[in-house]
Amino acid sequence: MSGHQEGGCGCGTVRYRLETEPMMVHCCHCKDCQRQTGSAFVLNGIIETNRITLLSGNPEPTRMPTDSGRPHDIYRCTKCQTALWSDYGGRPGLRFVRMGTLDNAASVTPYVHIFTRSKVPWVAIPESVPAFDVFYDKTFWPPEAAARRAAATTKPG
Which of 31, 55, 89, 99 fits as disulfide partner to 70, beta carbons 3.0 to 4.6 Å? Predict the structure, then answer.
């Protein structure tokens, strides 16, 4: 995938552009993602909030319950309710963009599969792609991506 990709909701009210590539793209097989998407998994691209340009519309957050109790806000189009991105754990500097909302979603492949302990049995994960029973730790991140993540989650002050 290359940066400067555009995407949007199902009805076209919300349009956005990613100004750079996400720092990480993961395929999440957790029960929450399965339930919230009505699918076997979700493909999320983790990117800094300030690297998403809203071109039209104004997605609104919906607070979702989580097993951890930490905040999870899913931003949806107010007309068609398409889920565009999430803020997880109260980290407003990072967004988890739903890669399926990109105009060229076929250009995206996951770097890693997570929460495979709850993946549905008919999904086959390629041997060439790392997979974790739960979440990967920070040492898995490539150095450049880790530096971007640290900068986005550092609180000023």
Answer: 89
- Strands 94-98 and 83-88, by their bridges, are antiparallel
Q: Structural domain boundaries of the chain?
A: 5-153
The residues near 128 (Cβ < 8 Å, ≥ 6 apart) are none
- Look at the domain 5-153 and name its fold: glutathione-dependent formaldehyde- activating enzyme (gfa) (3.90.1590)
List of residues 6+ apart from 97 with CB closer than 8 A: 7, 18, 22, 44, 45, 46, 47, 52, 84, 85
pLDDT tens readout for residues 81-125: 999 999 987 788 999 999 999 999 999 999 999 999 999 999 999
Q: Report d(CA 97, CA 75) in Å as an integer.
A: 10
Q: Tokens in use for 54?
A: 């809203």
Please tell me the pTM assigned to this model. 0.90
Rg of the chain taking only CA atoms, in angstroms: 15
* Residues across the chain: 157
Burial per residue of 34-44, b for 16 or more beta-carbon CB atoms within 10 angstroms, e otherwise: bebbeeebbbb
Cα separation of 128 and 68, whole Å?
30
